[in-house]
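Give me structure tokens for this 356-residue protein.
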Amino acid sequence: MTDTDALALVVGGTGIAGRAVCQELVDQGRQVVSLSRRPPAAQAGVRNVRADLTDAGSVGAALAGLAPAHVFVTAWSRRPTEAENITVNSAMVRNVLDVTGPSARHVALLTGLKHYLGPFEAYAVGETRDTPFHEDEPRLPMPNFYYAQEDELWRAAERDGFAWSVHRSHSIIGHAVGNAMNMGMTLAVWASLCRAEGRPFVFPGNEVQWNGVTDVTDAGLLARQMIWAATAEGLPSQAYNTANGDVFRWRWMWPRVAELLDVEPEGYAVRPRPLEEQMVGKAGAWRALAERERLAEPDLDRVASPWHTDSDLNRPVECFTDMARSRSAGFTGYVGTLDSFAALFGRLRADRIIPE
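Here you go.
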């Protein structure tokens, strides 16, 4: 069996990262199965199976008869406390690997920069790592569901003998309706409301993020890195930071994003103005705009996640990553961040998620 004949399983294939991984696998001519809880949007070349990832029996039934050689775990479930995040998200990884571990040659796990910044309950406060973040930094001395997921991965790898990689992305810029962590779509939707109401596009973050250096992660680039790590010969099992390869300051990027979205930008001034404040009570306005413009999704909660964008743009510390590890190992992928935003906004218009 050649590598392109080997079955690839994408766990969380309906999400912002999972859909991109599915698409890249299809583009490479690979056999792809997507496992998710939600009913998926149609994606050519992808076989979809559904399961409750927190239920071992449900996962086992959904994957019965499948023997994936490559497993890409991109799913997670947000819970009210970090203790619950740890319990639920580690179980999801364990349930999948208990079934797929014996056939897997490689398992790629998506996590993120909370590895360096801390969990939601202590996000970017207290002890954090210095920028740029390096993969060999020790874990922070606090509970973190990313660490629990890694522990499950390592236990299964020791048991079943597969290779593994962990991919620590920054904010992912990509297309997925209903995703809980979707900065690009959130900004596009808010800008559409601002334009409809004749109001400025106000930066929602703090002064540190407005002036500090940062980066983000294009979903397509993330997919290519995960597949590279899964299929390249001779790579050690290790973690990789995953970002576009450029860095920027929001004071430079914000007016350019506003221009792409045809709104008047307004930068940081005096205090943060979070989206959760700016967007309160806007569900009706979005529904009316969607009806008027014949948009595909009238539910504001399905196309915007202001809490997540606010958390990223209000960190009290600078945030960007070092990419030397994957570059020196042979992954040289790069996406200009402004190009990433432009491509996303173009697709959102084509799919009638936002108006022309």
